[in-house]
Amino acid sequence: MKNLLSFLRRQESTFVLFVLLFSFSSVGQETFKVYGIFTDDTGEPLPGVNVLVKGTTTGTQTDFDGKYTLELPKGQYTLVYSFLAPQVIERSFYLDSDLELNVQIGKEPELLDEVLVKAVRAQATSPITHSNVKKEDFEKRNLGQDIPALLNYLPSVVTSSDAGAGIGYTYLRVRGSDATRINITINGISYNDSESQGTFWVNLGDFASSTQSLQLQRGVGTSTNGSGAFGASLNILTDAVSNDAGGEISNSFGSYGTRKHTVKFTTGKISDQFEFAGRLSNIYSDGYVDRAFTDLKSYFLQGSYFDENTLIKALAFGGEEHTYQAWYGLSASELEEDRRQNPYTYDNETDNYWQNHYQLHWNEKLNNRWSTNLGLNYTKGEGYFEQFKDDRDAADYNNLINDGSDVIVRRWLDNHFYVMNGTVTYKENATEIISGASVSIYKNDHFGELIWGSDLAPNTNINDRYYFSTSDKTDWSIFSKFNFRVSSNLKAFVDLQGRFVNYKTVGLTSNRAPIDVDETYSFFNPKLGLTYKINNHHSLYASYAKANKEPNRNDFESNAYQVKHETLNDFELGWRFANDKLSFNTNVYYMNYKNQLVLTGALDNSGEYLRENIDKSYRLGIEVDANLNISENWIFNSNIAISENKINELIIDRDGGLNNFGKTNIAFSPSFISGNSVTYKPNQNLQLTLLGKYVSSQYLSNTDTEASKIDGYFVSDFNAMYELKMNNIFKSIVFKGLVNNLFSKEYVDRGYTYLNTWSGPTAIEEQGYYPQATINFLIGVTLKF
Known about the structure:
Helix content is 6%, strand content 59%. By secondary structure, the chain is mainly beta. It has 2 domains: 106 residues, Immunoglobulin-like; 533 residues, TonB-dependent receptor, beta-barrel domain (Maltoporin, Chain A, Beta Barrel), CATH 2.40.170. It has a 22-stranded antiparallel barrel. A 5-stranded mixed sheet has the order 9-14-15-12-13. Strands 1, 4, 7 and 8 form a 4-stranded mixed sheet that branches. A hairpin with a 5-residue loop joins β27 and β28.
């Protein structure tokens, strides 16, 4: 609490300035109110429904009583109500006095799609810090870049890529937390790799084209499936059922030989009960970094059956990736010499991986109170990366070579992932209870093959293995979530989860070191919160959440089996404001860690960051997110995140002695992040957007040495989209353009560092950097029919 008060005092002037910036009052012609309640087919109010005046940027959301209010001048209007699903409800009227307009949805199968993610998503009025992103929010910039690049302008988000242009190996950090502590689900099914706990977006080429909506929860969030959320959770809902038959052909081209080709189709409703849809995509880019090419082929297929109480979906998606390695970046001297160079010279220094996902979801509405959902998943993944190495020791390759031989090796993964999720939902009046269970089984073989050697040992055959290990992981979880009303203005949220993990691995690592792990973890993760409605425009929320997380495979490899599981206590306090012109969300968070596995800044031999347990550490911050409809033609969005990310006492054991650095900054944790955009919409068909992103300086290690510090950066992008309505073969033709890094800033947003030696009390560090692209562009055309 002392840290919190001290931090808020230091940021008081910044916060007040930000609030004043967005404060405004309306003056002018006489206005009238249109108001009402949005309810479901049982008469229950629905919070978080978007209510927009058609043809304008004026709108609001329903509160947790399902109520909305807009003030408009006298005139003819159409209100558009949307609840994340692609279909909308419209109501037209003439306003010359106050008007009550209540809306009740029918039993629309499109809205049943939301049930696939209901168990892991926060409601609009939940005491959970979150951001919702709909298809139309990101499709205007969807020209081939991966999902992290499309989410770059959300609060507290920092993104990066190996090749420098947002395609291929891309990365997402939230509140300073890397991919191993961001829980990702697709239709409620965990996507994080069970062993590394990371997320490899390179295996989801063009997945944004098959995404209906996303929700990014910052902090612990609600209970979810799979590895625990220690910085954020991102849940993805794939394309919803479509009423009408149609399709799209999309092609885009841009800098560095980038191109994207996508074909989509849907049959629409067949006999009012069936729909089939699909997508094929190919994305290629040479990359900003020399020879750091990316070649992605992907597919998405979906079949749906529905009636008024049932939704059954079968999905298959996946593809293959082929990328040239740029995992190790550039040294300081290489960066200065030529920031686009790639130090690798072997022609086939590539990563190659195939991954296919098969999902089945069955949602059944039993009656007005009870519904169930069952989700099944099987994922098959296999692939390798190939490397050339010279002058090797025979012992490192199981004596398949003679000392001093050059080699070419392939390091393989061959894995299977099985998941079963089930939830039961009870809803009556203002009470909702969601209970569920999830079980996953993961099996993986790690092995390396020698495919060439300049001096092979006798009896060695090509493709002989020089290391092998097997891994098995089971992950069970059960949870119950309770949403209920304490009083007319106060709602409570209670979320209880038990999670039980067993991880086993045996054999040799790629360094031929023995790895023999058999660890079991039992976690209890409670979460609770309150939301208080002050009036129709203002609400406050407070929450507490606890999370526990097991180590990953790299932690066991690099920490000599002394690694501990980590625990997080997350406190959030927030204020939400919304009217027909301005929506404003601000929150303060305090994330207190025990045994946090922080990044050391160093990399292992496959480009993954290494981590070490830190006894006590914390993240303390304030986030502000605002959306202002300046007029019918202008929209302004802005967010800032100010944070303090500290290790209470850093003690490092190096060269046979303990070195105490005292209180230091956590690596890869900038203290200031902001994103903003200004959108001009002269009409319904054209929109122009100028975007800006600022990330302050950050450290690549936890030692606070100047050598490990990288400078902050500010970059701007420009996005344009124009839709030409057609009445013939095509419904419309959409033209899109994106200029990234408009002012051609030369910057690095990520790197690594090694503590090699000591000079007295001072660490001597060696750094590497990942340069990001200077000014570049993407343009595209989509034919909709």
